[in-house]
Amino acid sequence: MNMKGKVLAFIVVLSFAFSSCGEYQKALKSDDYELKYKVAKALYDKGDYNRSMRLWEKVVGYYIGRPQGEDALYMYADSFYKRKKYLLAGYQYERFLKNYPRSEKAEEVLFLQGKCNFLESPKYSLDQDATYKALDQLQEYIDRYPNGAYLREANNMVLELLNKLQHKSFEIAKGYDKIRDYQAAIKSFDNFLVENPGSTFREEAMYYRLHSAYELAKNSIKSKEKQRFEEAKNYYELFSRTYPESNFMTKANRMYQDILKKISEL
User: Which positions, given as ranges, span the membrane (predicted)?
Assistant: First the structure.
Protein backbone atom coordinates (compact mmCIF):
# COMPACT_ATOMS: atom_id res chain seq x y z
CA MET A 1 0.00 0.00 0.00
CA ASN A 2 1.37 3.41 -1.02
CA MET A 3 1.49 6.40 1.30
CA LYS A 4 -1.75 7.86 -0.05
CA GLY A 5 -3.55 4.56 0.59
CA LYS A 6 -2.21 4.37 4.15
CA VAL A 7 -3.41 7.91 4.88
CA LEU A 8 -6.89 7.12 3.54
CA ALA A 9 -7.08 3.92 5.61
CA PHE A 10 -6.04 5.86 8.72
CA ILE A 11 -8.71 8.50 8.06
CA VAL A 12 -11.39 5.78 7.67
CA VAL A 13 -10.38 4.10 10.94
CA LEU A 14 -10.26 7.45 12.75
CA SER A 15 -13.67 8.43 11.40
CA PHE A 16 -15.14 5.12 12.53
CA ALA A 17 -13.68 5.55 16.00
CA PHE A 18 -15.11 9.07 16.36
CA SER A 19 -18.45 7.84 15.04
CA SER A 20 -18.51 4.98 17.53
CA CYS A 21 -17.55 7.30 20.38
CA GLY A 22 -20.24 9.75 19.33
CA GLU A 23 -22.93 7.05 19.27
CA TYR A 24 -21.86 5.85 22.69
CA GLN A 25 -21.98 9.33 24.23
CA LYS A 26 -25.35 9.98 22.63
CA ALA A 27 -26.76 6.69 23.98
CA LEU A 28 -25.28 7.31 27.42
CA LYS A 29 -27.03 10.69 27.72
CA SER A 30 -30.26 9.62 26.03
CA ASP A 31 -33.48 8.55 27.75
CA ASP A 32 -34.22 6.23 24.83
CA TYR A 33 -33.90 2.66 26.18
CA GLU A 34 -34.01 1.14 22.71
CA LEU A 35 -31.05 3.27 21.63
CA LYS A 36 -29.10 2.33 24.76
CA TYR A 37 -29.86 -1.36 24.15
CA LYS A 38 -28.83 -1.15 20.49
CA VAL A 39 -25.53 0.60 21.21
CA ALA A 40 -24.76 -1.60 24.23
CA LYS A 41 -25.23 -4.73 22.12
CA ALA A 42 -23.10 -3.33 19.30
CA LEU A 43 -20.30 -2.54 21.74
CA TYR A 44 -20.65 -5.97 23.36
CA ASP A 45 -20.46 -7.68 19.95
CA LYS A 46 -17.26 -5.75 19.20
CA GLY A 47 -15.71 -6.79 22.51
CA ASP A 48 -15.90 -3.31 24.04
CA TYR A 49 -17.18 -4.69 27.34
CA ASN A 50 -16.19 -1.74 29.47
CA ARG A 51 -18.41 0.74 27.65
CA SER A 52 -21.18 -1.78 27.04
CA MET A 53 -21.37 -2.42 30.82
CA ARG A 54 -22.09 1.25 31.49
CA LEU A 55 -25.04 1.11 29.12
CA TRP A 56 -26.33 -2.28 30.30
CA GLU A 57 -26.33 -0.92 33.84
CA LYS A 58 -28.89 1.67 32.78
CA VAL A 59 -31.21 -0.58 30.77
CA VAL A 60 -31.19 -4.07 32.33
CA GLY A 61 -33.71 -3.22 35.04
CA TYR A 62 -36.03 -1.74 32.44
CA TYR A 63 -35.89 -4.78 30.16
CA ILE A 64 -36.29 -7.54 32.76
CA GLY A 65 -39.80 -8.86 32.14
CA ARG A 66 -39.67 -7.73 28.52
CA PRO A 67 -38.60 -9.88 25.53
CA GLN A 68 -35.08 -8.41 25.39
CA GLY A 69 -34.48 -8.82 29.12
CA GLU A 70 -32.94 -12.27 29.01
CA ASP A 71 -30.30 -11.33 26.44
CA ALA A 72 -29.62 -7.99 28.10
CA LEU A 73 -28.99 -9.50 31.51
CA TYR A 74 -26.85 -12.28 30.04
CA MET A 75 -24.66 -9.82 28.13
CA TYR A 76 -24.41 -7.57 31.19
CA ALA A 77 -23.19 -10.47 33.34
CA ASP A 78 -20.91 -11.72 30.60
CA SER A 79 -19.35 -8.28 30.20
CA PHE A 80 -18.28 -8.35 33.84
CA TYR A 81 -16.94 -11.86 33.36
CA LYS A 82 -14.95 -10.91 30.28
CA ARG A 83 -13.47 -7.97 32.21
CA LYS A 84 -12.48 -10.41 35.00
CA LYS A 85 -14.75 -8.69 37.51
CA TYR A 86 -15.81 -12.06 38.88
CA LEU A 87 -17.66 -10.97 42.02
CA LEU A 88 -19.88 -8.64 40.01
CA ALA A 89 -20.30 -11.22 37.24
CA GLY A 90 -21.32 -13.83 39.81
CA TYR A 91 -23.95 -11.53 41.26
CA GLN A 92 -25.44 -10.85 37.81
CA TYR A 93 -25.39 -14.56 36.92
CA GLU A 94 -27.31 -15.25 40.13
CA ARG A 95 -29.77 -12.52 39.17
CA PHE A 96 -30.14 -14.11 35.74
CA LEU A 97 -30.99 -17.54 37.21
CA LYS A 98 -33.60 -16.03 39.50
CA ASN A 99 -35.30 -14.24 36.63
CA TYR A 100 -34.83 -16.83 33.88
CA PRO A 101 -34.56 -20.29 35.51
CA ARG A 102 -35.86 -22.04 32.37
CA SER A 103 -33.58 -20.20 29.95
CA GLU A 104 -31.57 -22.14 27.39
CA LYS A 105 -28.56 -20.39 28.89
CA ALA A 106 -29.35 -21.59 32.44
CA GLU A 107 -26.84 -24.46 32.33
CA GLU A 108 -24.00 -22.23 31.16
CA VAL A 109 -24.90 -19.48 33.63
CA LEU A 110 -25.06 -21.86 36.61
CA PHE A 111 -21.63 -23.18 35.70
CA LEU A 112 -20.18 -19.69 35.22
CA GLN A 113 -21.63 -18.56 38.55
CA GLY A 114 -19.64 -21.34 40.26
CA LYS A 115 -16.59 -20.60 38.15
CA CYS A 116 -16.64 -16.95 39.22
CA ASN A 117 -16.34 -17.95 42.87
CA PHE A 118 -13.73 -20.54 41.91
CA LEU A 119 -11.65 -17.78 40.31
CA GLU A 120 -12.15 -15.61 43.40
CA SER A 121 -11.10 -18.41 45.76
CA PRO A 122 -7.90 -17.26 47.54
CA LYS A 123 -4.89 -19.30 48.62
CA TYR A 124 -5.52 -21.88 51.34
CA SER A 125 -4.23 -19.72 54.22
CA LEU A 126 -6.92 -17.04 53.76
CA ASP A 127 -10.66 -16.99 54.44
CA GLN A 128 -12.37 -19.61 52.26
CA ASP A 129 -15.87 -18.15 51.94
CA ALA A 130 -15.58 -17.96 48.14
CA THR A 131 -14.30 -21.55 48.08
CA TYR A 132 -17.36 -22.85 49.92
CA LYS A 133 -19.69 -20.85 47.66
CA ALA A 134 -17.96 -22.20 44.56
CA LEU A 135 -18.24 -25.76 45.85
CA ASP A 136 -21.98 -25.37 46.53
CA GLN A 137 -22.64 -23.85 43.11
CA LEU A 138 -20.48 -26.28 41.15
CA GLN A 139 -22.00 -29.23 43.00
CA GLU A 140 -25.45 -27.90 42.13
CA TYR A 141 -24.38 -27.77 38.49
CA ILE A 142 -23.04 -31.35 38.62
CA ASP A 143 -26.23 -32.64 40.27
CA ARG A 144 -28.54 -30.78 37.91
CA TYR A 145 -26.61 -31.51 34.70
CA PRO A 146 -24.97 -34.95 35.09
CA ASN A 147 -24.26 -35.00 31.35
CA GLY A 148 -23.62 -31.28 31.05
CA ALA A 149 -21.28 -29.62 28.60
CA TYR A 150 -19.11 -28.28 31.43
CA LEU A 151 -19.14 -31.40 33.64
CA ARG A 152 -15.46 -32.29 33.31
CA GLU A 153 -14.32 -28.74 34.04
CA ALA A 154 -16.72 -28.50 36.99
CA ASN A 155 -15.43 -31.77 38.47
CA ASN A 156 -11.82 -30.65 38.08
CA MET A 157 -12.57 -27.37 39.84
CA VAL A 158 -14.34 -29.19 42.69
CA LEU A 159 -11.28 -31.43 43.20
CA GLU A 160 -8.99 -28.40 43.25
CA LEU A 161 -11.18 -26.59 45.78
CA LEU A 162 -11.45 -29.65 48.03
CA ASN A 163 -7.68 -30.02 47.94
CA LYS A 164 -7.36 -26.38 49.01
CA LEU A 165 -9.66 -26.92 51.99
CA GLN A 166 -7.77 -30.08 52.92
CA HIS A 167 -4.51 -28.14 52.74
CA LYS A 168 -5.93 -25.55 55.11
CA SER A 169 -7.13 -28.20 57.60
CA PHE A 170 -3.79 -29.98 57.42
CA GLU A 171 -1.82 -26.79 58.06
CA ILE A 172 -4.02 -25.96 61.05
CA ALA A 173 -3.31 -29.37 62.57
CA LYS A 174 0.38 -29.04 61.74
CA GLY A 175 0.36 -25.62 63.39
CA TYR A 176 -0.68 -27.21 66.70
CA ASP A 177 2.29 -29.58 66.43
CA LYS A 178 4.58 -26.63 65.72
CA ILE A 179 3.48 -24.70 68.82
CA ARG A 180 3.73 -27.91 70.88
CA ASP A 181 0.04 -28.22 71.63
CA TYR A 182 0.32 -31.92 70.94
CA GLN A 183 -3.07 -33.02 72.22
CA ALA A 184 -4.83 -30.53 69.94
CA ALA A 185 -2.58 -31.65 67.07
CA ILE A 186 -3.44 -35.33 67.55
CA LYS A 187 -7.15 -34.59 67.70
CA SER A 188 -6.94 -32.38 64.60
CA PHE A 189 -4.97 -34.98 62.65
CA ASP A 190 -7.44 -37.70 63.73
CA ASN A 191 -10.35 -35.62 62.45
CA PHE A 192 -8.50 -34.74 59.26
CA LEU A 193 -7.74 -38.38 58.45
CA VAL A 194 -11.30 -39.49 59.08
CA GLU A 195 -12.81 -36.68 57.02
CA ASN A 196 -10.30 -36.84 54.15
CA PRO A 197 -9.36 -40.50 53.57
CA GLY A 198 -8.10 -39.90 50.03
CA SER A 199 -6.25 -36.64 50.67
CA THR A 200 -2.88 -35.92 49.11
CA PHE A 201 -1.85 -34.76 52.60
CA ARG A 202 -2.68 -38.12 54.23
CA GLU A 203 0.93 -39.35 54.43
CA GLU A 204 2.19 -36.16 56.07
CA ALA A 205 -0.79 -36.06 58.42
CA MET A 206 -0.08 -39.59 59.63
CA TYR A 207 3.59 -38.78 60.15
CA TYR A 208 2.94 -35.57 62.08
CA ARG A 209 0.30 -37.33 64.18
CA LEU A 210 3.00 -39.84 65.14
CA HIS A 211 5.38 -37.00 65.90
CA SER A 212 2.81 -35.24 68.11
CA ALA A 213 2.01 -38.46 69.97
CA TYR A 214 5.71 -39.14 70.51
CA GLU A 215 6.38 -35.64 71.83
CA LEU A 216 3.28 -35.75 74.03
CA ALA A 217 4.47 -39.02 75.58
CA LYS A 218 7.98 -37.63 76.18
CA ASN A 219 6.56 -34.62 77.98
CA SER A 220 3.95 -36.46 80.03
CA ILE A 221 3.79 -36.95 83.76
CA LYS A 222 5.03 -40.36 84.93
CA SER A 223 1.57 -41.87 85.39
CA LYS A 224 0.62 -41.24 81.75
CA GLU A 225 3.90 -42.05 80.04
CA LYS A 226 3.34 -45.74 79.33
CA GLN A 227 -0.15 -45.30 77.91
CA ARG A 228 0.98 -42.47 75.66
CA PHE A 229 4.09 -44.24 74.41
CA GLU A 230 1.88 -47.22 73.56
CA GLU A 231 -0.41 -44.90 71.60
CA ALA A 232 2.60 -43.44 69.78
CA LYS A 233 3.78 -47.00 69.01
CA ASN A 234 0.38 -47.77 67.47
CA TYR A 235 0.55 -44.64 65.32
CA TYR A 236 4.02 -45.66 64.12
CA GLU A 237 2.88 -49.17 63.18
CA LEU A 238 -0.08 -47.82 61.23
CA PHE A 239 2.10 -45.28 59.45
CA SER A 240 4.84 -47.79 58.56
CA ARG A 241 2.29 -50.29 57.21
CA THR A 242 0.55 -47.64 55.13
CA TYR A 243 3.65 -45.86 53.80
CA PRO A 244 6.63 -48.24 54.10
CA GLU A 245 8.57 -46.28 51.44
CA SER A 246 7.81 -42.84 52.88
CA ASN A 247 10.49 -40.16 52.92
CA PHE A 248 9.59 -39.72 56.59
CA MET A 249 10.52 -43.32 57.51
CA THR A 250 14.04 -42.48 58.70
CA LYS A 251 12.72 -39.98 61.24
CA ALA A 252 9.81 -42.25 62.10
CA ASN A 253 12.16 -45.18 62.75
CA ARG A 254 14.28 -43.07 65.11
CA MET A 255 11.17 -42.16 67.08
CA TYR A 256 10.06 -45.79 67.11
CA GLN A 257 13.34 -47.02 68.54
CA ASP A 258 13.13 -44.46 71.32
CA ILE A 259 9.48 -45.38 71.95
CA LEU A 260 10.40 -49.06 72.35
CA LYS A 261 13.25 -48.14 74.67
CA LYS A 262 11.01 -45.95 76.83
CA ILE A 263 8.30 -48.64 77.04
CA SER A 264 10.87 -51.25 78.12
CA GLU A 265 12.09 -48.94 80.89
CA LEU A 266 8.64 -48.23 82.33
Answer: none
